[in-house]
Write a structure and sequence with these properties.
Blueprint lengths: L2 H10 L3 E2 L1 H5 L5 E10 L3 H8 L3 E4 L7 E9 L4 H7 L5 E9 L4 E9 L5 E7 L9 H10 L8 E15 L4 E13 L5 E4 L2 E8 L7 H8 L9 H9 L9 H19 L1
Parallel strand pairs: 1-3
Antiparallel strand pairs: 2-7, 2-11, 3-8, 4-5, 4-8, 5-6, 6-7, 8-9, 9-10, 9-11
Helix pairs in contact: 1-3
């Protein structure tokens, strides 16, 4: 059985949770911890925690297809702020959420306390056009004007969302990564890499998924799909501070591909 089939079989045996229930505790202001590992480990991790989390189900689908369209300035100011590790930095993106086909314009801000604050609005026509409502939203939550940003990267992936019983913790599991650059017109599939993110209000201690990651010796790593995709597809960009993460992603992906061909 393939890794994807294994994931699907385990998810099918877990208790489900509706989108309406998840939205009751949206964690728009939260802390987060990220992990990068071989997608082949995902079924093992899910088996360890399958009775302790509920899995988001929308239209009978538990592994949702996501599409993200990132915007930046022509000078890539947001990318460079992230590369330099500056606080109070932003990400601006349109995101299409799975089988619901809902499209949102989202702004994520990382403040000096390590807290991620996300604000979003649903787009009226389900597309990535910036209209008057989106202009007002950007003016309220970012220092960037709508006519000073351009689309620079498209990213798609499958996402599984897990929620603990008291809804104080959410886990997202992303795999099947694909990137397409609007700058270089390069594209790349990264089938061997999974990215987990634990989103929590105050304390990570007590997280069963965190315990499962530790038992599998998977350490936390700060990683941004936006920055990794931009760096991989646009090698001329400054990326010295991302080199270790880029090597890790490439190593995991190559190891997985080779293991599948044995």
């Amino acid at each position: 059985m393939s890794t994807v089939s294994n994931i699907g079989a385990i998810l099918a045996g877990m208790r489900g949770i509706s989108l309406e229930e998840v939205l009751k505790a949206s964690l728009m202001r939260r802390k987060d911890s990220k992990y990068v590992f071989d997608v082949g480990l995902l079924p093992i991790l899910l088996e360890k925690i399958s009775d302790q989390y509920r899995v988001l189900e929308i239209n009978d689908v538990r592994a949702q297809e996501y599409q993200t369209y990132y915007y930046d300035t022509p000078e890539l100011a947001m990318y460079h702020m992230h590369h330099r590790g500056l606080v109070n930095r932003h990400k601006i993106r349109f995101r299409k959420y799975g089988t619901s086909n809902d499209m949102f314009l989202e702004v994520k801000k990382k403040n000096g306390k390590g807290v991620t604050i996300k604000n979003r609005i649903q787009t009226g026509n389900g597309d990535v056009a910036i209209r008057s409502t989106e202009e007002e939203f950007l003016a309220e939550f970012t220092p960037y004007k709508f006519d000073h940003i351009v689309p620079v990267l498209e990213n798609s992936f499958k996402r599984v969302t897990l929620v603990n019983e008291n809804q104080t913790e959410r886990v997202t599991l992303d795999y099947g990564l694909f990137f397409n650059s609007s700058i270089s017109e390069n594209s790349m599939e990264v089938p061997g890499v999974a990215i987990a993110e634990i989103k929590y209000g105050t304390h990570l201690a007590g997280s069963s998924f965190h315990a499962a990651l530790r038992s599998s010796r998977i350490p936390a790593r700060r990683i941004s799909k936006y920055c990794i995709g931009m760096a991989m597809l646009n090698p001329e960009l400054k990326q010295n501070l991302f080199k270790q993460k880029l090597r890790l992603v490439r190593k995991i992906n190559q190891h997985h591909i080779q293991s599948q061909n044995i």
